[in-house]
Every structure is written in C-alpha cells, then in structure tokens.
Design a protein that fits this description.
This is Peroxiredoxin. It holds the Pfam family AhpC-TSA. One of its GO terms (molecular function) is antioxidant activity. The chain is of the alpha+beta class and 179 residues long. It has one domain: 3-Layer(aba) Sandwich (Glutaredoxin), CATH 3.40.30.10. The strands form 2 sheets. It has a 7-stranded mixed sheet. Strands 6-9 form a two-stranded antiparallel ribbon. α3 links the parallel β4 and β5. The longest helix has 18 residues. The two termini are 24 Å apart.
C-alpha cells in the first residue's frame, strides 16, 4: 500500500465522459481529493457504485474533488473499455470524471491492487487514507455506508487527524496487461 504522507502521483488521463485529458491538478479539491480505482465488471464495484455516487454528491459541495480511474486490461475485459466506461458513468450518473489508464502507469504509481481501491489526499495532496470504502461486501448483508471514506473526509473538514488504523481494500484484482 502507498505510504501515508505520500504526495499524490501526478497524472494526465482521458476522461471517458467528456473525452478530454484531465490532470490531477484539474481534479483536485480545495479541501482534499478522493481517487478511486474502479472498473465496470467487478462485482465489488457494482456493489458499492450507488454509495460512491452518494459520497461524491455529499462531499463535492464541501470542497472535495473526486475522480475514478479504470486501469484494467481491456483485452482481457472488454466491458472495462472506454466506450463502456462512458456508458456506465452516464447510466449511474457519476458526478466525477471516469478516467482511462490505458498503460496502467497510474495504477502502478498509486500501488493500486484491486477494484475498488480508495485514496484520500488532503488539500496539499498528501495521502491521509488508503483502503476500503466500508465493511460491506457482496452478499455479506452489511449495507454500504462509505463509513471509512466519510470518516477521513470529516476529519479533514474538522482539522482532525485521520485515523492511522486503516483496512486494505478488498475486491477484484486489477487485470494487469501481459506483454
């Protein structure tokens, strides 16, 4: 996992919704930035999609930037390709850009391991949280709440320290390209 305190690695990727290249600087929020590694096919992502949309709507107005990145090998999973990313973003009304990491360099820079994988950076782009959204999983009966991300964002809003006890993300592994 990326070490707490790490500066957010910079990037410039294609937003599949607006069809424009966006950089980290374009997307950062005045209070902090949430970077989510997701994809279309993963049942763990499908399970939390509605909560990440709610989360973004709740916190964007408070000064947080949100961005989703898909880094999967689209040859192995064509449903994760940009045309389907656009479709899913529209269908689910994503209130954030959905970026395509074709060469997987951004996922590697962030040490992303799975989908979904969440990173919260403060206003100076220092990592304060990395890990899971909450304790909900497909079929475990626990409702999605975004608890751990909400706690981190609330701590930033209230000038409190984000708890260091953080649970790693769980989900589908990122589908790395084979060369």
């Amino acid at each position: 996992m990326l070490e707490l305190g790490t500066k957010a690695p910079d990037f410039k990727l294609l937003d599949t919704v607006s069809n424009t290249a966006l950089s980290l600087n374009d997307l950062r929020g005045s209070k902090g930035t949430v970077i989510m590694f997701i994809c279309n096919h993963c049942p763990y992502v499908r399970h939390v999609n509605s909560e990440i949309v709610r989360l973004a709507y709740d916190y964007r107005v408070l000064g947080f930037g949100f961005v989703a990145v898909s880094s999967n090998d689209v040859k192995a999973h064509p449903e994760d390709s940009p045309k389907y990313m656009f479709k899913i973003a529209r269908e689910l009304n994503y209130p954030f850009p959905y970026l395509y990491d074709e060469n997987q360099e951004v996922a590697r820079a962030y040490n992303a391991a799975c989908t979904p994988d969440f990173y919260v950076f403060d206003e100076t782009l220092e990592l304060v949280y990395r890990g899971q959204l909450d304790d909900s999983r497909p079929k475990n009966g626990i409702p999605t709440s975004g608890r751990y991300i909400r706690e981190a964002l609330d701590a930033l809003l209230n000038n409190r320290k984000v708890l260091k006890d953080q649970k790693p993300s769980m989900g589908c592994s990122i589908k790395w390209r084979t060369y």
